[in-house]
Amino acid sequence: MSAIQDKLIKKLTPKQQTLLLLIIPLVIAGLFVYLVYLPNKKIISNLDADIQKNESEISKSQLMESKLPELKAENVTLQQELKLATDKLPSPSEGAGVPDAIKKAAMGSGLTVKSVQAGANNTGPGGLYIETPVNVQVNGGYHDLGKFMEQLDNMTRMLTVAELDISSGQVRGKKMDLPIKFTVLAYTSGGGK
């Protein structure tokens, strides 16, 4: 130690010297915490969060990678099923005959046809199919309507019946005469992507 430091230390009482020996390390520790630890603690916690996020993404990626062969095989199967399903759909030109086929089926079932009108085509997702609504108004009995629905079900084209509305009717002779309205949704091939 230098002479000046010795003189300063000798002027201090032993109690002050002990206190000085305790305060100096505390001040150094406080400065370390304030100047080094606290600013870097935030950086460290951000880095820890990034590490956890990356580890989570890695585990997700590993799980997805392990399922990839299974998903590829399932995709091939689904593509084959899609091709078979779209091959069953009639072409748009064949779809133009749907209103006439519906009218013929209704009359063949004993229903009186008031109107059969095709609506605007709606393209399905990815252009895979075209949905054509055909609005139908007929009169007849429940039994005739059942025969008509059976004929629709036996058609080779894909058809669904929606918005069935049967109003109260009258008895004519031995038959019921009910006003019946519904929409037949006819599906044709859209070609797809």
Corresponding CATH superfamily of the largest domain? Ribosomal protein S6/Translation elongation factor EF1B
Given as residue ranges, the uncertain stretches (5+ residues, pLDDT < 50) are none
Counting H and I runs of at least 4 residues, what is the number of helices?
5
- Radius of gyration from the CA trace? 42 Å
- Outline: rod-shaped
Question: How far is the first residue's CA from the last residue's CA?
Answer: 88 Å
What summary fits the major beta sheet? 6 strands, antiparallel
Annotation, overall tally of beta strands? 6
Beta-strand residue percentage:
15-25%
Average pLDDT, to the nearest integer?
A: 81
Number of structural units classed as domains: 2
Q: What's the topology here?
A:
Layout: H1 3-11, H2 14-88, H3 92-95, H4 98-108, E1 112-118, E2 122-123, E3 129-140, H5 142-154, E4 158-166, E5 170-172, E6 175-189
Helix pairs in contact: 4-5
Structural commentary:
By secondary structure, this protein is of the alpha+beta class. It folds into two domains: 88 residues; 98 residues, 2-Layer Sandwich (Alpha-Beta Plaits), CATH 3.30.70. It has five helices and six strands. Strands 1, 2, 3, 4, 5 and 6 form a six-stranded antiparallel β-sheet that branches. A hairpin with a 2-residue loop joins strand 5 and strand 6. Helix 4 crosses helix 5. The longest helix is centred in the first third of the chain and has 75 residues. The mean pLDDT is 81.
